[in-house]
């Protein structure tokens, strides 16, 4: 029986190599020398220069009479030519270096020509030349690329071929087929940079030319359907600074917001004024800003229906504030002391009736005046929160109860006071943090000033129940979903307390951090700055006849707040200039002043 040895392909049958001849060896040596010469020619240049100088000097020394000048003249000419070449293309320092090298070479040529190139002068020439070459070598320490070796190296394997259609990521296939195809929700769009995270995946979305990323927001329901997901699992957000055709897509395969995320301890960063308040659907924390470094205190509005979790949001804000060495919060509980009971006795001022609320607000307005000289002393700008000048956030829970007026209650004085705080307080380190049931101007006492200033700050929108009520949220970029569409329960039946949106750069569903018992947290006793401390604290104890609900008393309060009656006069003049009929009622409606103020102002005219 015979065994067959497998046949090798023809190319693999090796021929015996022929013996190298001496001319081959010479050729190889020359090629190697040329290769090295090409690679190291820059570094060898100074040595060639020193050698040339040596040769010129030696030749001149060997000759006698005027003939001795010929090599020196030729050497100087070559040196001058070299210097001229270097000078033309070099920087200032290179020119200086080339000049020193040329002068050195010429001097040595003359010196050697005069005294002869004996052992001492030649050694001196080489030693000085090498010393002079050191900066040049340092500068050209990198050899020239070894092109010859690179050409001789085997070619790298070709890059992997693109993935054949049909074998790409399943998500891209679904996208291309059901979203990006012609006639579908986002024709011509592409999905890229897909990355997974603990609860799903993210991708970069690029829409067809002429499209805006808002179109992707509209296509959210189609995307949910294509990826077979329940509502509230797809988010489209703008990418700051990128083209309007690009957006970030977040797809949740599970919902991390279903789990409560507990507050982890104080996180206020004094350098940014921020602390984490909510956790977004992709697991990222969303910070709340108490102040903007360099730009003053930030106002805020927290809104949501009863049991949506807004008091718990205030608990986190108050705890972060109370544990900081540069924040001194004041509390007004519009719920009669039942909304924020854990803060009674734990803040410098705690007001639980409308009359006490007014006292606190008036006190805050006086603090603004007390702090005015400090702002002037620092030459304008805003007071930066510090242990010496603490930020004073005035937190008002159930603020709508104190701001809205009806037939029986006139709260316009409270609105005026709050307006002044939001309009002027930021630079004095004083801000207003309001909690209402609905993010609407109506709940802010129909004050456009309050609405505008609060909108410029932070809005936390928790669940609401009526569509028309979210009019402070439905502006700017469209929301991924209306706050009224937020579910009351998660699929497992657990309530969605704390679920909502923070109107910051990221519009993504989020849930507030939960702090069960704020009373357990140790607070820092922050003293007021000297200017503010001079203002006596209001006594919040007396009960009798506290309610200034009558028109007369409201007007008196307003009058006390308007130090300059010219303010009312200016408003009235502006309203008349704008075409308002000059009767007291029309002017009252147009200016927001009380009837008494309007009458007084008209009497002054
Ligand atoms: N972020 C959260 N995570 C989990 N549970 C929360 C969260 N926020 C609030 N809750 C729970 O929801 C319930 C209601 O919260 P909270 O009192 O803050 O609501 P509210 O909107 O202020 O209600 P009300 O207007 O009636 O005062 C509380 O039992 C609280 O424990």
Automatic annotation (TrEMBL):
Protein name, as recorded: FtsK domain-containing protein
Organism ancestry: Bacteria, Bacillati, Actinomycetota, Actinomycetes, Pseudonocardiales
Ranges of residues in domain FtsK: 283-469
Taxonomy, superkingdom: Bacteria
Entry-linked InterPro entries: FtsK_dom, P-loop_NTPase
PROSITE patterns with a match to the protein in the record: FTSK
Binding site for ATP: 304-311
Keyword ATP-binding attributed: yes
Range of residues in the leader sequence: none
Spans annotated as Disordered: 1-25, 541-569
GO molecular function, one term: DNA binding
């Amino acid at each position: 029986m015979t065994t067959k040895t497998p046949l090798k392909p023809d190319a693999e049958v090796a021929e015996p190599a022929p013996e190298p001849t001496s001319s081959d060896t010479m050729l190889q040596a020359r090629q190697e020398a040329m290769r090295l010469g090409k690679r190291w020619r820059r570094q060898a240049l100074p040595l060639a220069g020193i050698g040339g100088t040596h040769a010129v000097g030696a030749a001149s020394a060997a000759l006698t009479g005027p003939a001795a000048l010929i090599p020196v003249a030729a050497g100087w000419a070559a040196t001058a030519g070299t210097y001229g070449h270097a000078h033309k293309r070099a920087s200032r320092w290179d020119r200086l270096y080339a000049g020193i090298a040329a002068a050195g070479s010429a001097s040595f040529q003359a010196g050697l020509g005069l005294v002869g190139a004996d052992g001492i002068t030649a050694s001196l020439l080489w030693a000085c030349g090498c010393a002079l070459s050191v900066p040049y070598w340092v500068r050209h320490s990198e050899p020239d690329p070894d092109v010859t070796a690179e050409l001789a190296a085997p070619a790298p394997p070709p890059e992997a071929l693109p993935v054949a259609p049909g074998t790409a990521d399943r998500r891209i296939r679904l996208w291309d087929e059901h979203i990006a195809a012609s006639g579908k929700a986002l024709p011509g769009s592409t999905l890229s940079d897909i990355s997974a995270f603990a609860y799903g995946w993210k991708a970069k979305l690029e829409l067809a030319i002429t499209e805006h990323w808002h179109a992707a927001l509209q296509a959210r329901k189609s995307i949910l359907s294509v990826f077979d997901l329940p509502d509230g699992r797809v988010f489209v957000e703008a990418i700051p600074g990128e083209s309007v055709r690009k957006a970030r897509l977040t797809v949740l395969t599970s919902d991390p917001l279903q789990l409560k995320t507990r507050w982890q301890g104080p996180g206020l960063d004094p350098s940014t004024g921020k602390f984490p308040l909510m956790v977004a659907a992709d697991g990222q924390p969303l910070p709340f800003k108490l102040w903007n470094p360099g730009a003053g205190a930030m106002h805020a509005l927290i809104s949501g229906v009863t049991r949506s979790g807004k008091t718990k949001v205030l608990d986190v804000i108050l705890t972060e504030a109370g544990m900081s060495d540069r924040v001194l919060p004041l509390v007004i509980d519009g719920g009669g002391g039942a909304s924020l009971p854990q803060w009674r006795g734990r803040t410098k001022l705690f007001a639980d009736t409308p009359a006490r609320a007014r006292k606190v607000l008036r006190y805050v307005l006086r603090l603004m005046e007390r702090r005015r000289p400090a702002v002037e002393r620092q030459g304008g700008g805003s007071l930066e929160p510090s242990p010496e000048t603490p930020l004073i956030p005035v937190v008002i829970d159930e603020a709508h109860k104190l701001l809205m007026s009806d037939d029986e209650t006139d709260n316009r004085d409270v609105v005026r006071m709050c307006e002044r705080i939001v309009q002027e307080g930021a630079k004095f380190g004083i801000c207003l943090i309001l909690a209402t049931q609905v993010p609407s101007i109506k709940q802010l006492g129909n004050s456009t000033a309050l609405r505008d200033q609060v909108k410029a700050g932070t809005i936390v929108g928790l669940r609401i129940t009526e569509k028309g009520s979210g009019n402070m949220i439905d502006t700017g970029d469209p929301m991924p979903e209306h706050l009224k569409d937020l579910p009351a329960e998660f699929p497992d039946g657990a309530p969605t307390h704390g679920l909502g949106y923070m109107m910051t750069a990221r519009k993504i569903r989020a849930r507030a951090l939960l702090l069960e018992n704020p009373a357990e947290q140790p607070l820092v006793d922050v003293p007021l700055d000297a200017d503010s401390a001079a203002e006596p604290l209001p006594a919040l104890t007396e009960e009798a006849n506290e309610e200034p609900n009558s028109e007369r008393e409201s007007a008196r309060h307003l009058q006390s707040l308007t130090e300059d009656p010219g303010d009312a006069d200016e408003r009235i003049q502006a309203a008349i200039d704008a075409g308002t009929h000059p009767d007291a009622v029309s002017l009252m409606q147009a200016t927001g002043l009380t009837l008494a103020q309007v009458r007084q102002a008209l009497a002054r005219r």
